[in-house]
Design a protein that fits this description.
The chain is of the alpha/beta class. It has twelve helices and twelve strands. Helix 8 runs parallel beside helix 9 and helix 10 (226-238) crosses helix 11 (251-261). InterPro entries: HTH_LacI, Lambda_DNA-bd_dom_sf, Peripla_BP/Lac1_sug-bd_dom, Peripla_BP_I.
């Protein structure tokens, strides 16, 4: 029996109808607890393994969860995917991962592709170019379960998982002020993103509370190109009115800042202190080690998957509520922001 047996063979061994065995294995309310225990016990004894492909055809389900992310080469999104995959695999689902590469046109093509029920549900973080969300509204109207995380779409009435971006940016900016910074810059990719708006709001409020006025040139809009970002940041650091502190809204801009500093006579943290939102495991290995605001990426992924699995297994009893679930980030102080 090491190779397992079929559902019909298991039913014959139990002297039950295959339909009864199937319902027992699927925890149907129509089957008594005694019968369920009997069936499960025999299934384990005889090494019964359900055929996922046959089951998918019967139920008209793909057993697939689509994950749409802005980029793969990002520690945060990689960890979110790990969390989703862990829970999905436990329940017999696999992932179909799409990357928009921060391109809204690619995002629209992916969404159009998924409207044909290629996946049973979607977990998504929107691109930095996404402002018109009509393509996402159409997808939602197809009754395909969808959950957003991190970069969310507020116009879609479904569950959204985020971290406490406002509070984290506020605390990060406050820490820079406490370390003696008087001129603090904020580095961002796209100001339209939900996460950018919240982080920028936290930055501004911390400055206001300290009696500081934000410098217009210190709110630096960057782009996808690392080379262009390094040039932009270098120009800022070489200007007469340069910042002495930086809050970076994403880790790629913090790394760009490290490269930019090498093009100047400045040093971190003596002349410039920097803290960033980042899930980079090597932040502590940089020289100097980088202070970070770490998002609970793995947990966000796990919670997204758990909620979707509940919806997929019992669709009538588990609605995806129009709610925002906040999972706090963690502030880790390292050498890049410590006064010496």
């Amino acid at each position: 029996m090491s190779n397992g047996i079929s559902l019909k063979e298991l039913a014959a061994e139990l002297k039950l109808a295959p339909s009864t065995v199937s319902r027992a294995l699927n925890d149907s309310y129509e089957i008594s607890e005694a019968t369920k225990k009997k069936v499960i016990s025999m299934a384990e004894k005889l090494n019964y393994q359900p055929n996922p492909f046959a089951r998918s055809l019967r139920e008209n389900k793909s057993k697939t969860i689509a994950v749409i992310i802005p980029e793969r080469i990002n520690n945060f999104f990689a960890q979110v995917m790990d969390g989703i995959e862990e829970i999905a695999h436990e329940h017999g689902y696999h992932l179909l991962v799409y990357s928009t590469h921060e391109d809204v046109e690619k995002e629209k093509k992916i969404v159009s592709l998924l409207q044909n029920k290629r996946a049973d549900a979607i977990v998504m973080s929107v691109s930095s170019q996404t402002s018109d969300v009509s393509h996402l509204v159409k997808l939602y109207q197809r009754d395909l379960p969808i959950i957003f995380f991190d970069r969310v779409c507020s116009d879609i009435p479904t569950t959204k998982f985020i971290t406490n971006d406002y509070e984290s940016a506020y605390e990060g900016t406050k820490h820079l002020i406490q370390q003696g910074c008087q001129k603090i810059a904020f580095l961002m990719l796209a100001k339209e993103l939900s996460i950018t708006k919240e982080r920028y709001r936290g930055y501004l409020d911390a400055l206001k509370e300290a009696g500081m006025q934000p410098e217009p040139t210190f709110s630096l809009h960057c782009c996808r190109s690392d080379e262009e970002n390094i040039q932009l940041i270098t120009e800022l650091l070489k200007s007469e009115n340069r910042p002495d502190g930086i809050l970076s809204s994403v880790e790629k801009l913090a790394l760009a800042t490290y490269h930019s500093v090498k093009k100047t006579k400045l040093s971190i943290p003596d002349d410039l202190k920097i803290i960033t939102f980042s899930n980079m495991s090597s932040a502590g290995l940089l020289s100097p080690s980088l202070s970070t605001i770490t998002q609970p990426a793995l947990t966000i992924g796990q919670e997204c998957a758990k909620l979707l699995i509940k919806k997929l297994t019992k669709p009538r009893h588990n609605e995806l509520k129009d709610q925002v679930i906040v999972i706090p980030s963690k502030l880790t102080i390292r050498e890049s922001t410590m006064a010496r």
